[in-house]
Write a structure and sequence with these properties.
By secondary structure, the chain is mainly alpha-helical. 59% of the residues lie in helices and 11% in strands. Helix 3 crosses helix 4 and helix 5 crosses helix 6.
Length: 176
Amino acid sequence: MRQAAKAINFGIIYGMGPHSLAASTGVSFVEAKDFIAKYFEIFKDVKKFLDETKALAHSLGYVETLLGRRRYLLEINSGIPMLRSSAERMAINAPVQGGSADLIKMAMIEIDKLLAEKYGDSARLLLQVHDELVLEVKDDLAEQVSAKVKEIMENVIKLHVPIRVDTHIGSSWGKG
């Protein structure tokens, strides 16, 4: 149920229309259209963000991440509706996903510095998967490294809303 709710939520944010929502959920077109309208009534700021981001993309021809990386959208003002809609979806996705990528990259740089300076061969960053990091740490240092990694990830950049990070310790990624 959580996965379905997440898919619907992100689908609407990234431009899923009533046809797609109806097809993916099994509700009628009218119900899907009403659901989307109610969603944006409740989450007015989400709608405002989406509209402002699209308008900015149409005006500038690009969007930016939190740290100013640009995604140029050549088809944003296309006369072909399908191309324009695709560019609008990219305009929404780029700042959100790109901002997330900016944050995790900054955190990885700081974590790598910490591990090299303080832990040497006792801890290393193994893997990044989306917004997750997997580290290999000697057992007796796991709690300490976990706390420091959490602190770095939550404070690598200050936003208007706090960044919350969960850490888990386990013998493998799936057991953490």
